[in-house]
Write a structure and sequence with these properties.
Layout: E1 3-4, E2 9-14, H1 35-47, E3 52-57, E4 97-101, H2 118-124, E5 129-135, H3 137-150, E6 154-163, H4 171-181, E7 185-187, E8 192-193
Parallel strand pairs: 1-8, 2-3, 2-5, 3-4, 5-6, 6-7
The structure holds pyrazine-2-carboxylic acid and zinc ion.
Length: 194
Amino acid sequence: MTVTLIPGDALIIVDVQNDFLPGGSLPVPGGNYIIPVLNQYIAGFYTRRLPIIATRDWHPDDHCSFRQYGGDWPPHCIANSEGADFAPGLALPVYSNIISKATTQDKEAYSAFSNTQLNALLQSFQVKRVFVGGLATEYCVLNTVKDAIQYQYAVFILKDAVCAINRQPEDGRLAIAEMKHLGATSIYCEDLVV
Ligand code: VGL
Ligand code: ZN
């Protein structure tokens, strides 16, 4: 199956930040291997001058998702810290749009649509189809994809450019199955026609 990029397409890169990569505070095992693949998708969208959105987890230092404050996770992606920076190898064009999420102490947000301007931004670009990759498959990618489907976007999940934490060994695989069940289509880099 091939997919040809057309006006109305947008690339959404979820949370490819240092803390989610090996060496970070909440590493996704193997998360670094998706970076060169994401760069290939970026190159395709850039060639067509299609919108590219990079989301980032952007927490205050006392965020409710941190264990010390009753949450599930070690501290990660604290706003303006090095851990919250995008991976240095991620080749984001200067025209990329950045969406920060889960920015207030009392609200967790796995979806990049949650309390952000993402939907308004996509609407302003007249986006109809979103191509979603990044980290982590079963948390922020899954919840962003679910909301995108709710908002009536056609969703392509970049199967070779997502990576799971897999606290339970099947979590990533189950998340992909759920997204497909909800109507997302999974594609690989070589399926993309620019
Ligand atoms: C994420 C756990 C905690 C994610 C964010 O980006 O998938 N996971 N915060
Ligand atoms: Zn987080």
